[in-house]
Amino acid sequence: MAKTRDDQRLELLQGTLDMLILRTLQWGPQHGHGIGQAIRAQSDDLLKVETGSLYPAMHRLEKRGWLKSEWGVSEANQRAKFYQLTAAGKAQLSRERDRWSQLVGAIGRIMNPAGSE
Amino acid sequence: MRPDDRELDEEIRGHLALSVKERVERGDTPEVARLAALREFGYIPAARESMRRVWYSRWFDMAEALAQDLRIGLRSLLRAKGMAATVVMTLALGIGANAAIFSVVRSVLLRPLVNRDEARLIYIRQSAPGLGTDNLTFSVPEIADLKASVTSIGAFGDFSTVDFTLTGLGDARLVKAGVVSGSFFDVMGLRPVLGRLLTTGDDGPNADGAAVLTHRFWSSALNSDPSVVGQTIGLGTRTATIVGVLEPSVPYPADTEVIANIVTSPHHLGATMVTGRTHRMTELFGRLAPGATLESARVELNAVYAAMVSAHPDSYSRKAGTQISATPLRDQITSPARTILLLLLAAAAVVFVIACSNVANLILARSVRREGELAVRAALGASAGALRRTLLAESLVLCGAGAVLGVLLARPLVAVVASFASRFSVRALDVTVDASVLWVGAGLAMVAAVLLAYVPRLPSLDSGSGRPEQGRRAAQTPTGPGLASAGVRLTPSTTRRLRVFATVQIALSFVLLAGAGMLVATLMALQTASTGYDTRRVLALDIPVAIGDYGPKAITFYEEIMRRVGQLPGVDGVAVGSFVPWRDAGTFGPGVSFAFEGFVPADGEEDPRARLRIVSPRFFEVVGMPLVAGRAFTDDDRGGGEPVVVVSQSVAQRMFPNGEALNRKFWWTDPYFGTPVPRRIVGVVADVDDEHVVSAPALTVYLPFQQMGVAGRVFLRTAGDPYALVAPVRRVVRELSPNQPVERPATLEDVRATVLTPERLHAFVVSGFAGVALLIAVVGVAGVLAFGVSARTREFGVRLAVGSSPRSLLMGVLAEGVVIVTIGIAAGLAGGYACAGIAARYVAGIEWPGVGPVLAAAAVVGSGAVLASLLPAARASRVDVLQALRSE
Hints:
The complex is a heterodimer.
Chain A: H1 16-24, E1 30-31, H2 32-42, H3 51-63, E2 67-73, E3 79-85, H4 87-111
Antiparallel strand pairs in A: 1-3, 2-3
Chain B: H1 5-25, H2 30-41, H3 44-55, H4 58-78, H5 81-110, E1 121-127, H6 140-149, E2 153-167, E3 173-180, H7 184-188, E4 192-195, E5 210-213, H8 215-220, E6 232-235, E7 238-246, E8 258-261, H9 266-269, H10 271-275, E9 282-288, H11 294-311, E10 323-328, H12 329-369, H13 371-379, H14 384-421, H15 435-453, H16 461-464, H17 492-528, E11 538-542, H18 552-566, E12 571-577, E13 592-596, E14 609-615, H19 619-623, E15 627-630, E16 644-648, H20 649-655, E17 665-668, E18 679-685, E19 700-704, H21 705-708, E20 713-718, H22 726-736, E21 743-747, H23 748-791, H24 793-801, H25 806-842, H26 851-877, H27 881-886
Parallel strand pairs in B: 3-8, 5-7, 14-19, 16-18
Antiparallel strand pairs in B: 1-9, 1-10, 2-3, 2-6, 2-9, 4-7, 5-8, 6-7, 11-20, 11-21, 12-20, 13-14, 13-17, 15-18, 16-19, 17-18
Helix pairs in contact in B: 1-2, 1-3, 4-14, 5-12, 5-14, 5-15, 6-11, 12-17, 12-23, 14-15, 17-23, 17-25, 17-26, 18-22, 23-25, 23-26, 25-26
């Protein structure tokens, strides 16, 4: 796995961590470590999630009812807490996805106005 | 499901394990992998705290910490059971007494009346300070004048009290009735529970007689029988229909059975009543007009009254100094109870302060013993706040337990205090225990807890950590090197605080005790005072006849009663009169003006006034009043004979200083008697005071019954048990007249005892408080000295070892107790007089205690405290030298 140097990594935009967690869990239940790894891997190592903020975020999502958790045993035979999307979490994910594409579109229109190319 | 702390830890551990495992699989050594994983995670406690905060609020954590402290506090208190029990009991007494009295004060003084819009209801009173009369009442013309001119009072209601013989509801009975005009109930804002109340339609001389029953009479005497409404009853010589039953309400100005319209009382229709400006017997109420305030009503009343007085100068003498006043009805009703309830509240507050300072002492002493423990905790990094929180938790446990016990104690106390207060205000009859007891209890406990937590001194961090000090339980607790076992260390400031608290307790309990002593002394003086009557052997009964029967008919009636009753076995003498001493006090106003042969009034001087009493022959003999000169009345002093009087010794001495009262002429000058009739003074009798239980020579003039034809009270001189004669007398009277009420039989001794009941209760209740306070204070002094002795065991051992005699140690400790007591009593004396001075400004009738009660209180407090000091002093003198020295 190619290592990306720390100064090339991108800071997460505020408010996007929740969306990324929900999105990651769309593929199935996962524990905190796995979620962190998945976000990093899928972003080609560009996004690095602070563990110190990942866990509180997952607990926040669980408290709001978008995730539910269950103790289980990981692939490495280690006891871990697995998080899973709930129906409400799925709805929330699609809402956040819509808002995200609107945001990206809007920012994109400002940064690259039509006809400037 | 909110995760608990264990789960959070496990999740973090799991993450680290996975992270390490992954790195090891990538080829890192376990050591490097572990460090990298930890570095990647960041500061674990911070992350853990953020995770926790998602589920648990800050308040939850604080509550949890407090609960933890409380658990620790409870455990540490359980190790000091004796001290904890003393503290809890002391606080329970203080809190219970306060909660009980406060809830009575609340429901008696502060609770609104049932009357509609009661805040606008006022009571109007005419008084004549110059005659010593605080309630002159009003006459019908006066009320008419006020009604005509005062606009800030929307409506007036009037009420006069009349005794009726009630017939038609079972046995004939004597009832107190209110006679009112139709506006009364509307002004008072009362509703019926049955039928209707009186209205203006019931006014006037041609209306039908109508009566409303009071709720008390209807529910107690008539068993709440609804069928009485519509029934016709006899009220004296008239009849009336019962039109309704009044809702339960505070009976004021008089607790009557019946309230009837004007037409039921012939007297109210007579010319004397309707036109006599000085014929006053009516109480007056008013309802403030919309927009008017009590102040504006007072101003207007005073102006109208002043105009009225100057329009009729002959009816308002300058000497009488008549005046008018208006008070909210609720204040008027509760005023008799106000002073005593506030006094009790003050006494309870003092007991609470004493209890708190005693508890503060115990806690202070305890904290000295555990100074070592606190020092160790401070040395280990506990902040001052954390230590304070521990102390707060402990005092919360103590005060909470005290409050619970106090509230439990308050429930029966409320009943006691309420029955006591009901002597002064009928409102106290329906006092119930309500939530205010709980609030007061909890509030006081909180106050006590916070105060108590700040009593002990915290070990200061800089010196406390290095200094070798350790509590008594050093042997059981592991001690670090350098924290050597020493005796309890008593700093001067702690000693000073302990003594200040003990002094405060002595001072306060001395004040209470002096107050109680004053009340007891007053009571004893009253009970042992000579009355001039043979109180034990004389039985008095009310056997009234209707006003219409006064005159020859009444004379025949009472003569026959005297003849027949006199024949009963066990009767040594029988007489009739117009006035039962003390019981009838206040019913005849301020006395009647008179003049006598040789009396020349100085310019502007008014005629003297004397009490007018009508008595039959043998009256003086029956009640035991010795004749000083001349003769008593005989059966020959009757209508048509020579008009005669007997005067009291004070009349004879004051009016005839040369001792020539006998055979001089005397006459009433009050217009009520019409043309003055000169009467010859035939006798002089010893002075009695039948109005006041505290006797003072009173100008009294006795008229012969058979010349006046007015009586109503029968007196029997008995040989055996006076009350055994009640049934035979009643039988004899009923034989003579079947509908004749025979009421309120009582010996003069019992009449006087009843009148003295409030004084007895005051003395009893305040003595109770003082006793509790004294007990707490004595325990407090003993505790302080005992603690001082135990803290100075070593010092005493050394002193014994170098040759001090045990006696001198004993005297030393005793002297300390004496100093505390002396300062306490001095402080109490100064503080008590200062407080009484302040209180006298707000509460009328504060009396200064005499020297006797103060000295007695000082003696009791002093000897109690010295006795309490003996125990610790004895212990000081018996200190085992070897053991004391070895303990270091």
